[in-house]
Amino acid sequence: MVNRLINGSEAAPVEIFVNGLFVPVHDGAEPYRGYLIAADGVVVDTGAGTPDIPAQATVVDLAGKLVVPGFVSAHSHLWQSVFRGIADGCSTYGWIAQLHQRFGARFTEADMYAFTMHGGRDLLRHGITTVCNHTHNFGSGAEGQWRAALDLPMRTVYAHSPTHSATAAERLAGIEWFQETTATVDDQRILARSYNTTWPMSAPEMRKESALLAEYGIGQHLHYLEDPTVIERQRAEFPLLLDTGRVTSDTVFAHFIHTTPEIVAEAGKRGAAMVWNPLSNGRLGSGIPDIAAYQAAGVRVGLGVDGQASADVADPFQNMRTGLYLLRGLAKNAGVLSSRDILRMHTLGSAEALGVASRVGSLEPGKFADFVVLDPDRPSTGPLADDVYAHTVLALSAANVVDVRVGGHSVSTGLFDTPDTGDAHERVARLRAAL
Fold it and tell me: Could you tell me what percentage of the chain is helix, strand and coil, using 3-state DSSP and rounding each to the nearest 5?
C-alpha cells in the first residue's frame, strides 16, 4: 500500500509514525506499541511493531510516547475564550445576562474573528482537533467567526445561532445566508454544518424552518433542558419539537439534562444525539444528566468543553474526570462508567454524535490522521499503569500534551511557548470601557 501510494498514480505525501504507544478507542481495538502510516493526511495503515519503510517516506519517531486520537468537543463557543471567570456564582440565565446581554451588541466582525482565533488555538493546545463551534450572531460578528473557521488548522462542525429576537422571516433569511456562505466551501477542515433551532415559534413556521434545513443538509443543534429554572416549560414544548421536525437523526441536543424517560425514549427512537458538558454544567449549577439511561435508549452521547467563559478551561482531561467523578458519586458506584468508556466518548463518541465519525474520532484507515502525543513523564505521572486507559484518563492532563497533529502535520508550533493574546486584551478593554 505505502509503495503504491508513493510510486504509483496515487502518489501522495507519506508520513510514518513509529515507536508509539497507540491508545485506540474504536470497539475491539487494544493499546499497542507500533506505527501509524498517513498518506496525504489520511491514515492508511496501523499496526504493532515496525513497518517496512520506503526511502521516500518521512519518518517520525514517537520515542515510546502515548498517542490518542485528537479529542472532539461536540459543543463549544470559541469566541467566549477571552471572557473567563465572568459571572461566577450565576446560573445559566444570570451568566447570559452578564456576558451575552452586556457585551453582545457591541461586538464587531473583527472582535469575533480575534476571539474565535484565540479560542480555537486554546482548544488545539489542549489536544482538541475537532470542534463543533456553536457561533452567535451578536453585533456584526457572524462573518468573523466563519472567517476564523477557515483560518484555524483544526476541523470544524460549524453551527450558527441567530439572535434570540429574530423573527420567523429573519430566521429563514438567516438560513439562506448560512447556506450561501458555507455550502460551496470545499475544505477538509469543514466537516458539517448545523443551526440553532432552540426557540419555538408557531408550528407552521417551525416546520418550514426544519424542512429548509433538511433540504440544505444542515443539522439542528439545540440548547435544551439545560437550566433547572425552565424545566417545566421546555418539557411541555417537547411534543411541539417532535411534531415540527426538530427531533431527527440530524438533531444534537446540547446539555439535555432535565429530561423525562418519555423524552429520552423518543429522542433515542428518532436517532437524536446529546452533548454532555460536565465542566460548564457544574460551573453553572445546571445539573447532572442520566448518561446511562440515554445510552440505553439509543441516544448517541458526546462530550463538549462548551465555551471557555462557562467551563473556563478547554481541557478534555479535566472534562472527562469531572464527568466521570460526578456520575460515580451520584450513583455511589465507581463502576458506573469506565475510563475507557469516557475516553471513547470524548473522541469517537463525540464524532458519532456530530455525524462525522467516518472521518475523525479514532485512528483507523480511511480517517484523517488527527492525533495527540502525550508524554507521561512531562510532568512525571509515574510508571504507566497496566490499564493504559485508566492512566490516560485519571492521571494525565493537557500539561502532558507534547504534540498535536492534524492530517499528520504538527500544529504545535507556538502553541505551548508563545503568548497567544494577539490584540484580545485591547479589544476586551475597549468593550468593558464602553459599558
Answer: 40, 20, 40
